[in-house]
Amino acid sequence: MLRKIYQIQQFKQIHQYFSYGSTFDKVNNIVVENLVEEINSKHDREGINFQDIKQFINQQVLELNQSLDDLIKWLSNQVNPQYVYLLGLLYYELFLKASENNYSFAQVYLGKCYYDGGYGIECNHNLAFNWFQKSAESGNIITQFYLGNCYEFGIGIAQNTIKSVYWYQKAANNENTSAKFNLANCYQFGKGVDKNGKKAFELIKDLAEKGNADAQFKLGYYYDKGIGTEVNKSEAFELYSIATEKGNTNAQYNLSKCYQFGKGVDKNEKKAVELVKDLAGKGNVDAQCQLGYYY
């Protein structure tokens, strides 16, 4: 159990220091280093049991006649990665307390902790889904998107594309760009909703006009392939160019194809090679294969 840390000599020294009237700042290096050491040791052996960690930290701080707020305040001003890590564990506890009191933004971050793992707790998609659902049902926009994503890909819940569309739509109605983008994909491919290229086009066009690079690439692709609109190679070329300038690699690859085959622009194989070579140097597999074709 975590309490065995109490037996080591350094923790005995802590209580001696306080008995002589020392301040918390004089001993918290020892406190934190040993807390982190024992927490990490338990993590390596058994995986984190956050309830044990919570009880242990609270007990140690209480027996030193200090407060958890003092520890958090001190940790907030430290740069040592071990200390930052422990602060993250404590913030998890704060997220949990606020979440249990139905504060939706805390539920967002608590859900993310469980979704990603690595924040002092193990990844648990079922719990992530549960917290996202609580937050989304209270009207939180970002978790409406997260919930839609969980339903679309079956993360923490059985896959249900109809419910996915429902939550994407709610978030999209509140101007969440990620939800709009995913909703457009649902309409494009008929996932959870009747296939509707025109609706997909409208959603993506709205995002592209607001400067979203991914949407600008996607809109270029729609013009390129005639999805929800008539084919317009010149418009596709312009949008691929804009998105490429913003770092969208898919747009850059498609732009190289425009130059290679003269789609919406004069044919220019030299320019096509330059674009592909740049992408290949960044590790893009498709570009690396295409570069092999050129040479």
From TrEMBL:
Gene3D superfamilies: Tetratricopeptide repeat domain. Pfam families: Sel1. It comes from the Eukaryota. InterPro entries: Sel1-like (IPR006597), Sel1_AlgK (IPR050767), TPR-like_helical_dom_sf (IPR011990). Belongs to the sel-1 family. This is HCP-like protein.
